Amino acid sequence: MVDQCALRVMRELRQFARSDDLAIDISYKEQNTRELNALIIGPPDTPYAQGFYQFLIRIPPEYPEKPPTVTLQTTNNGRTRFGPNLYASGKVCLSILGTWSGESNEQWSPVLGLETVLRSIQSLLAAKPYNLEPGFENDDDEEQSELYNAKIHHENLRLTVIVPLEKAFDIKTTQPSTRPGQGVYLGAGIYQSNSSVPEAPFHPFLDTYKRRFLWYLESYKMAIEHGLNDKKARARHSFPLMAFECADNIMGGSWDYEDMKKRLAVLELRIMEETKKWPVQGKDMDQKDHPLAASLRAQSQQITRQLTQRTEGMVVLELVDDNPFLWRLIYHGRPMTQYDGGVLKINIFISPNHPAEQPRVILETPLYHVRVSPQNVLIYLPLQADEMSRHVDGIISSLEEDKPPVNPLMTVNPEASALCWGSKEEQRQYSRKLRRSVAATLE
């Protein structure tokens, strides 16, 4: 008998695989497609901006007649409530999931699917979550709403970005309790709790966390500076509790942007150190004739020939120190383009775990560009993650796109983005700054 549930789920997963949505990612084991891990990136212009929220989705055998069950796993081990509908217990309150009451047209229907569920959850990461609490929909208490946003903003940075990456790098740190009135320190055991709420299994999205950290690093730094200047976020003062927060379903804690600033700097250093170790590890693999090293070397040779023919020598690919895990793309600016006369040298760091870990691309000289961060990290989207030719194509396309479409989740240089997509005068200012940075590549 054909398993209709499995067929339906696989069809939906294939649709997701073809999607270019940067806000939602799904991971699963092929032998069990009824248990999915989902990652939702917090929407820009909300207190959840660029945060990482993981969910466990279990599909019942009766799906799509019955809805999936969804558990939020970004809860600080059951200690932190991230919103009126996102409980510390992991409960996600949505009428289509049957976890909240609603009108008949808001209930689950077999015509709905995983995308509807994830979009509905995404809508809970709202600009004004205070007004999502039942009974507070029309509450115009701006002071309370802003205070609620302020503490979510703080914990979004601390608990969804900094703490998970510290865990990944095994960075030991002490952190104050999230329960008001408690002076104990949780230390490195932040993930070890007697809570029955399991913390998110980190491995499905580890590479995504690290890559997005590099993408959004400047935004994180700006958010912390904003917090340091916010009078509501007085250092080491406890978070205020909202009227609807009670018992164990709260967001407790205290402000400490100074501490987060230091920890963010440590993470930046560790990720860059890891990136620069890849070629060292790769060189050892190459000397041992590892299949991945041989494959990368062969791919580089093929891509080099293709680039020479396709670009008439304007784009050159070489292996740095004959290392197949460190490629250098030399991009000669074409006449009558924004790169006219410039020479961009772009290093492509390839992981020994490629393609499970995606390459990291860093320019040797600064470039004022909407797709290049102030840390010289280039953002690009390869059409196929496991083919290096697609990565090279993605890098070139990212650089040559004259008028890139507005996509807040691809904002790696907030200042350049504001100018590029601003007024006519701001666009001219962006072009001047870009041209000056291109000219500086020859100095």
TrEMBL record:
GO BP terms in the entry? apoptotic process; negative regulation of apoptotic process
**One term of GO molecular function:** ATP binding
Report the EC code(s) recorded for this entry: 2.3.2.23
- Which compartments does it reside in? Cytoplasm; Nucleus
Q: Which residues fall in a coiled-coil region?
A: none
InterPro entries attached to this UniProt entry? UBC, UBQ-conjugating_enzyme/RWD
Q: Which SUPFAM superfamilies match?
A: UBC-like (SSF54495)
Gene Ontology cellular component list = cytoplasm; nucleus
- Write out the entry's keywords from A to Z: Apoptosis, ATP-binding, Cytoplasm, Nucleotide-binding, Nucleus, Transferase, Ubl conjugation pathway
Top-level taxon: Eukaryota
Q: Which Pfam families match?
A: UQ_con (PF00179)
CDD domains in UniProt = UBCc_UBE2Z, UBCc_UEV
What is the protein name stated in its UniProt record?
A: Ubiquitin-conjugating enzyme E2 Z
